[in-house]
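Progress report, Aim 2. The chain analyzed during this reporting quarter is listed below.
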Amino acid sequence: MGFDVVGVGASCVDHVCRLPVFPAAGGAHAKLRMLAQSRSSGGQTATALATCASLGLRPAYLGAIGDDDDGRRVRRELLERGVNVEHVTVSASPTATATILLDATGDRIVLWYREPGLCYPPDRLPVEVITSARVVHVDDVDEPAAIAAARIASQAGIPVTCDIDHVTPATAELLPLISHPVFAESVPTALTGESDPERALRRLRRVHPGRLVVTLGERGAMALEGDMLAHMPAFSVSVVDSTGAGDVFRGAYIRALVEAWPLADSLRYANAAAAVSCTKAGAMGGVPTAAEVEALLASRV
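Predicted C-alpha cells for the chain:
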C-alpha cells in the first residue's frame, strides 16, 4: 500500500520554557525565573507529517533518531498519531533537541542542536516507499537525504514540497528538485536580495517554474502561480504558542495539494490550520484536527 505523503527530514524533542519576557544580557532580564517548562515532540518534518495524519492522510516518516529515550519518544508519538515509522533509521548519535523560549505573547526563540552524525544515509533511502507516495516532503535539516529523496521523487514525476528555513550552499542543488516550494519568510529575500515578498517571488519565477509559496507569520501567506499572485491573510486568534505553526501550515498545504484544491482554498486552509495550532501548546501538541480547522473556517466566512 502506498502513502499519501512521505516526509524526509527533522524530528526532535523540544524543551519548552515559558517566560514572562525574553532574556537580555547585562540587565534586569539577564536572569529570569521560568513560569513553566515542559518537554514535547517536534521537528519540522515530523510535525508536518503528524498534521497530515490528523487531517486524514496516510503519511510515512523517513528520518534519523537516536538510540535513546528521546528517539523512542518521538517514534512512539508519531506512531500513535498515525504516521508510519517503519523506515526510520536509528543512529548512534543522540536525538536532536530544541530549547524553545516562549514569552507572554506566544512569540518564541528556538535554540536547536543536532549532531552532524545524526543523518539518514542517502543510499539507504527506500526507493519503493518514496515512489509509492502521492507527495514527497523534505526539509533543509538533513540536506543530503533531502536532495536524494527529492531527486527520486522528481524523476518519478511525484510532486515535492519543502520546508526551506534558511539558505545554505546546498540550497542551489535542492531547490530545482522541489516542484512546490514553501519558504520561510526570510528565504526569498536571502535568495534574491528583494525585501518585498512579492518582488522576491517574481524574481524567483525567473529560475523556478513551480507554484512558489512563502509563509509570512501573522501576515498570512503569499503564493505565485504562473504570473498570478495570491495573498491570504492570517486568521486572528489568541496565541498560546506559535511553535510548529509553519510545520502545521505545510501539513495542511500538503493535504490541499493531494486533493488538488485551488490555490486560494489551499492557502486559506493552511492558514486556518496554522492558526488553530497557535492556540495550543507544543509543536505536535498544537496539531489540529480536521474538525477544528473546519470550525475556524466556518466561523470566518
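The mean pLDDT is 95. The chain has one domain: 5-23+33-299. These observations will guide the mutagenesis work planned for the next reporting period.
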